[in-house]
Amino acid sequence: MTLHLFGCAFVCLSSVCRAVDPVVFSLLPKFFPRLLSEVNYCSSTSNVSGTKAVLQCLLAALEVITDKIPQLLGPYLPDVLGALLSSSLLSSAPASAQVLMTVDCCILNLATRA
C-alpha cells in the first residue's frame, strides 16, 4: 500500500469512529496499534519523500479518535503518549506548526475527556 493511500485509510477510519463513537470499540485492537506504529515510523523517517503528508493524515486521525472515544483508549495510553511525545515527532514540530498543534489537541483531548 502506498504511503498516501495508507494515510487516507486512517483518515477514513477516523471518520467512521466519529460517526459511530463507542461502536468502534471492537475494532480498536485491529487498527489502533497500527496507527500508533505508523505515527512513530513516519515521524522517525520524516526526511523520506511523502512521509510528512502521511504523518499529518495519521495525526489528524489520532486527533479525531482521542476526541471521540478517549474513554476507550486506556489500554493504549502509554503508547499514545509515547508516540505523541517522541523526540523524533517533537523535533519535526518546529518545522510544522500543524504537527505541533495536532499533538497538543490530542494530549488535551486525553487530559480533559479520558
UniProtKB/TrEMBL annotation:
Keyword Signal applies: yes
Span of the signal peptide: 1-19
Protein name: Uncharacterized protein
Organism listed in the record: Phytophthora infestans (strain T30-4)
Source domain of life: Eukaryota
Keywords on record: Signal
Entries under InterPro entries matching the protein: ARM-like, ARM-type_fold
